[in-house]
Each structure stands twice: as C-alpha cells, then as structure tokens.
C-alpha cells in the first residue's frame, strides 16, 4: 500500500530535488509554460531525457529553495534566478548545448483553438475560399463584417480578412467562427524567456548568434576602441599600428620638406626628384601592334638566305 505524503513532506522532497539540481547543473533555461498541457509537458520531458531535466513548481517554493541553496553553499550567483521566477514558469536544467536544447524545446508546439477571452499571441487572418458551410451560417460572417458569397450552395469568403490582431482578446463570435472553420490559429509550447549560465543571465536571442555574428560584433568593437584611442591619443593594441603609420607619415613629410633624411625616406625623395626614372624602369616593354608584327615576319622571310641547289654543285664539278 502506497504511503500518501503530507504537504510538508512533498515540499521537503521538492526542495531537496531542486537544491540537488542546482548543485549538479550550472546551465538553466527559464521557460514560460502558459497553455501547456500535461501530456505535452510529458512529451517534452521524454524528448530532453538524457542531458536535461524539466522541473515545474510554484514560484514561492522555487524561490525558497534557491535562497536556501545560496545560504547553505555560499553560491550567491544562483540568486540571479530569483527575479526570473515570476509567472507560470519552469526550469530546464541541462549539461548539453543550450542552443540545441532550446531548439529541441521549440519542436514540441501544438496547435490550439482560439478560446474566448484569450489574448492573441499572433495576428489571425481568415483566408479566402470555400468554407463548406451552408448559407444559413452567413450570420457569423455578417456580424464580423466578412464579405461572402454563395457558391454552389456553400458560403465562400471573397477576400482575406484580418479577424484578430495580436494582443487583442478573442471574442465569442471570433472563437465560434474559427471553430466552425476548423482553424486552430495558435500554437503553444514551452517558450525560453531567459538563460542562466554559470551565474550570468542573458536573453535567449543570444543563442541564435552565429560565429559570423560574433566576429562582426567583435570587429565593430575593435573599430570603436581604435577610433576612441586615436581621438584622445591614448595608445592601445588596436590603435598602435595606426599610430605608428601616422607617425611615419609625419616624419616623412618633414624629411620631404627639409634636407633631413633617413633610409625609409631616401627612396621617396628620389622618386619626387625624378619620377620619370621610376616610370621607365618599371614600365614593361610595349608589344608591337599586329600590323607591325606581321610586316616584321614578312621581312624576316625575305632576308632568309637561299639554299644551295644540287644542280649548281654538279655544274661546278664538270665545268
């Protein structure tokens, strides 16, 4: 016979489990669980089984366990979770890649009907076309000002209609119409709200950054540091090459304007004195035009010495 635990025993067991998870894991996804059913949550647990653990619970119990764990271990970093534990949220403890876990969680979204009083998370647009409803159902469309026509004994929507806007509450007429059309406009699942990683908390959008994005942001940061360093004449690793080049340009300008010189300026000063010498030395020999090349070949052929014939040899022998 199973022993039924008291509420106090259940709270103690939950506290021990959460504190052990905080001890074993340093990466946590804080997820919103609005409109997520128990079967859907069970499927998510199965999909994440191995590297991740999903833990739901009351916010007061979670905050209490986090505080007790921080006091007992001296790990004050976990206190950064406290401001995040508000609303219908849960925790996903993981040792895997945060991006992969977040993508896996996003797979378990299911379609849901538009219930009355629900705040629409997206815009709902009714597409044009045949609805399959008989003409007696036109009252729903007339209430919502949806243009229709009767085609082959059924109601047909003429143009696409924006039925519900994002952020608006679903009314009874909209919910009834969508139910009759068999449209389930919304999809719900666990939504990652924040990411906790070794004491740091950041937005889930960071997980979508690629290496190219990071390199671009790093390059922009280096460029800003370089510009600031050059503006205030403060040497940094980023600005040092530019400072050396600018200093060389300044010294070179002084050398060109005066009799002072140094090895790196000698060639520049020589070029300024006689640019033509460098142009002749560096210019490749010009190729002859096609007509001149053809004429040269003809001349070469004409100047070739004639070969001695065998007849001339024989004549000289018997002469």
UniProtKB/TrEMBL annotation:
Gene3D superfamilies: 3.30.70.1730, 3.90.105.20
Presence of the UniProt keyword Ribonucleoprotein in the record: yes
Gene Ontology CC: cytosolic large ribosomal subunit
Stretches for region Disordered: 282-319
Keyword annotations: Ribonucleoprotein, Ribosomal protein
Domain Large ribosomal subunit protein uL10-like insertion: from-to ranges: 114-183
Keyword Transmembrane helix: no
Pfam family membership, one: RL10P_insert
Molecular function terms, GO-annotated: large ribosomal subunit rRNA binding; structural constituent of ribosome
Signal sequence, renumbered to the chain: none
One GO biological process term: ribosomal large subunit assembly
Role: Ribosomal protein P0 is the functional equivalent of E.coli protein L10.
Subunit (UniProt): P0 forms a pentameric complex by interaction with dimers of P1 and P2.
Family: Belongs to the universal ribosomal protein uL10 family.
Protein name per Swiss-Prot or TrEMBL: 60S acidic ribosomal protein P0
Provenance organism: Dipteronia dyeriana
């Amino acid at each position: 016979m199973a022993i039924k635990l008291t509420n106090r025993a259940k709270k103690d067991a939950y506290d021990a489990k959460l504190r052990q998870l905080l001890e074993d894991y340093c990466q946590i996804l804080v997820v919103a669980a609005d409109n997520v059913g128990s079967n859907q949550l069970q499927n998510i647990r199965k999909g994440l089984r191995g590297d991740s653990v999903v833990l739901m619970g009351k916010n007061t119990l979670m905050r209490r366990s986090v505080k007790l764990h921080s006091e007992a271990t001296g790990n004050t970093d976990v206190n950064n979770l406290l401001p995040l534990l508000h609303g219908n949220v849960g925790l996903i403890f993981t040792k895997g890649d945060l991006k992969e876990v977040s993508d896996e969680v996003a797979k378990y979204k299911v379609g849901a009907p538009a219930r009355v009083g629900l705040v629409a998370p997206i815009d709902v647009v009714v597409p044009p076309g045949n609805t399959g409803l008989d003409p007696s159902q036109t009252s729903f469309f007339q209430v919502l000002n949806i243009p229709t026509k009767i085609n082959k004994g059924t109601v047909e929507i003429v143009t696409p209609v924006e039925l519900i806007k994002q952020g608006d509450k679903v009314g009874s007429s909209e919910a009834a119409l969508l139910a009759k059309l068999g449209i389930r406009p919304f999809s719900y699942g666990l939504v990652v709200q924040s990411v906790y990683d070794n004491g740091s908390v950041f937005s889930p959008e960071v997980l979508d950054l690629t290496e190219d994005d990071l390199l671009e942001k790093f390059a922009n940061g280096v460029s800003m540091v370089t510009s600031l360093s050059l503006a205030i004449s403060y040497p940094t690793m980023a600005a040092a090459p530019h400072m050396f080049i600018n200093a060389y340009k300044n010294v070179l300008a002084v050398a060109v304007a005066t009799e002072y010189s140094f090895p790196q300026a000698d060639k520049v000063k020589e070029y300024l004195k006689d640019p033509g010498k460098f142009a002749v030395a560096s210019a490749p020999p010009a190729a002859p035009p096609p007509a001149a090349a053809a004429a040269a070949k003809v001349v070469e052929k004409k100047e070739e010495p004639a070969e001695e014939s065998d007849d001339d040899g024989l004549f000289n022998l018997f002469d």
